[in-house]
Amino acid sequence: MLNSRDIIVKPIVTEKSMGVMEENKYTFKVAKKANKIDIKKAVEDIFKVKVLDVKTMNVKGKVKRVGRSLGRTSDWKKAIVTLKDGDTIEIFEGL
């Protein structure tokens, strides 16, 4: 079983993710093997908030060119976590 800090890799800070923060939804890059239950427990454990819903999606890596050769970035998993009204995550507040 993965540790809570291993499940949540990093927060995703984009224009779109900042827009859904007003709906109390936060976006994270998570471990590929983590399921919704693991993600919910990890967010509640790390940030001390109440999670209502977790939506996950697998993001395909993009094809990148390096000189003459083609490569590919890694596939990864994204989770959008909905929190209870009144709960916030502090790392996003200063942005």
From TrEMBL:
Keywords of the record, alphabetical order, are: Ribonucleoprotein, Ribosomal protein, RNA-binding, rRNA-binding
The source's superkingdom equals: Bacteria
Q: Which GO terms describe its cellular component?
A: ribonucleoprotein complex; ribosome
Q: May I ask which residue range the UniProt record assigns to the signal sequence?
A: none
GO biological processes: translation
Any GO MF annotation of the entry: rRNA binding
Subunit field text = Part of the 50S ribosomal subunit. Contacts protein L29, and trigger factor when it is bound to the ribosome.
Q: Which family does it belong to?
A: Belongs to the universal ribosomal protein uL23 family.
Q: Which NCBIfam families does the protein's record reference? A: PRK05738.1-3, PRK05738.2-4, PRK05738.3-2
**What's this protein's function?**
One of the early assembly proteins it binds 23S rRNA. One of the proteins that surrounds the polypeptide exit tunnel on the outside of the ribosome. Forms the main docking site for trigger factor binding to the ribosome.
**Protein name stated in the entry:** Large ribosomal subunit protein uL23
Q: Which species does this protein come from?
A: Desulfonispora thiosulfatigenes DSM 11270
Identify the gene encoding this protein.
rplW
